[in-house]
Design brief:
alpha+beta, 10 strands, Butyryl-Coa Dehydrogenase, subunit A, domain 1, 12 helices, Butyryl-CoA Dehydrogenase, subunit A, domain 3, 15% strand
């Protein structure tokens, strides 16, 4: 049989997701910073639902904001994989800040850069990349979760050189502290999901208010709230992309969000594994460290396998997502791959944390323990950015060739 070169092509493809030296340097720098600067904040954030007011300015000063934004706009000019690595490192040491960082840097800043006009980029990106301003994505509504587009009730009515927004957004990460809200609203309800537009809304504009800050089970300290828009006048110049073109922006953004947010699961699981190894070595029962017992060793081995398989899939999908164009999400292989990445990562993290808590025993069941704090983070990653059930539907429909969008 003639040599077709397929093995070489396959080998080349398999190497695309391997970290480069520069990417490893990003991961190491983010890990050092997070351990030194963000980890000491985690306990108070969890106990008090407290947010450190200067943290985004500190992140900007260290070059950890605007990761995927060119340097000409104040960003770091790096790739999406580097963004995932920062999320991983931050989440090892303070997953609440890791979540808020993704809401700012991926959901808001990355989307804004990909879809904004040059004037919009020049106006908003420098402040967002420096940390002077905080960004958020305002999509979910009280009656619209998994069916975020079809059940959307927030409207935007054109009046001269403004749109007038009315509606409510719920479960908005960074909502209570945001300066810039990437907001979705229906501009033509008769078109259904294809009548949605995206807007850059300045959070301190008249007609926008934080109705409440929500107190959560996990990721405490990462500020989550309800936003109300009441006759909020938004300049036509703040329309992101084309009128009624929001579905393309949203679906692309969701795919890239899922690819990136899976890194939070990896960071949490890595930390849980390390805590469990350390605890197993130090905790003594029956005159021996519990690390000597084969049942504990088996749990640690299973946790390690979970972490490493998560890492492989997450890095591979981040690399694949690099090639997604501004309107390229919501369909095709990346739609299924990004859903698979966060589905597997979230559920694997749950298994890792369950074993970690079992290893820690009664000490892990205590609210203020670090492993308890990590354990309480499990469910959000099975709910946010599309539930595990929605992720399975996305994968199945891509496999079966369905044209229904989720």
């Amino acid at each position: 049989m003639a040599d077709t070169g397929a093995p070489e092509a396959s080998a080349a493809a398999s190497m695309q997701w391997q970290l480069t030296a520069d990417q490893r340097a990003v991961l190491e720098a983010a890990d050092r910073f997070a351990q030194a600067e963000l980890y000491p904040l985690a306990k108070r954030m969890d106990e008090e639902e407290w947010w450190p007011p200067d943290v985004f300015a500190r992140l900007g000063a260290e070059g950890f904001l605007g990761i995927t934004v060119p340097q000409s706009y104040g960003g770091a000019g790096l790739d999406l994989t580097s963004a995932g690595l920062v999320a991983e490192a931050f989440s090892r040491w303070n997953h609440a800040i890791g979540l808020s960082w993704i809401a700012h840097d991926n959901l808001c800043v990355h989307n804004l850069f990909r879809h904004a006009s040059e004037a919009q980029r020049r106006r908003h990106l420098p402040d967002l990349c420096s940390g002077r301003h905080v960004g958020a994505l305002a999509l979910t509504e009280p009656g619209a979760g998994s069916d975020a587009l079809g059940s959307m009730r927030t409207t935007a009515r054109r009046e001269g050189d403004h749109y007038v927004l009315n509606g409510t957004k719920l479960f908005i990460t960074n909502g209570p502290i945001a300066d810039v809200l990437l907001t979705y609203a229906k501009t033509d309800p008769s078109l259904g999901t294809h009548g949605v537009s995206a807007f850059i809304v300045e959070a301190h504009s008249p007609g926008v208010r934080v109705a409440q800050k929500l107190t959560k089970m996990g990721f405490r300290g990462s500020q989550t709230g309800e936003l109300v828009y009441t006759d909020c006048h938004v300049p036509v110049d703040n329309l992101l992309g084309a009128e009624n073109g929001g579905v393309g922006i949203l679906m692309t953004g969701l795919d890239l969000e899922r690819a990136t947010i899976a890194s939070i699961c990896l960071g949490i699981a890595e930390r849980a594994l390390q805590l469990s190894v350390d605890y197993a070595r130090s905790r003594r029962q029956f005159g021996r460290p519990i690390a000597d017992f084969e049942m504990i060793q088996a749990k640690l081995a299973d946790m390690y396998v979970g972490v490493e398989t998560m890492r492989t899939l997450i890095y591979r999908v981040l690399a694949a997502a690099e090639s997604v164009g501004a309107q390229g999400g919501g369909r095709g292989s990346i739609h299924a791959q990004s859903a698979a990445s966060v589905l597997y990562a979230a559920e694997s993290m749950g298994r890792v944390l369950s074993d970690a808590l079992q290893i820690h025993g009664g000490n892990g069941y205590i609210w203020e323990s670090e492993i308890n704090r990590l354990y309480r983070a499990i469910k959000l990653l099975e709910i946010g950015a599309g539930t595990s059930e929605i992720r399975r539907l996305i994968i199945a429909r891509e496999l079966l060739g369905s044209t229904d969008a989720v």
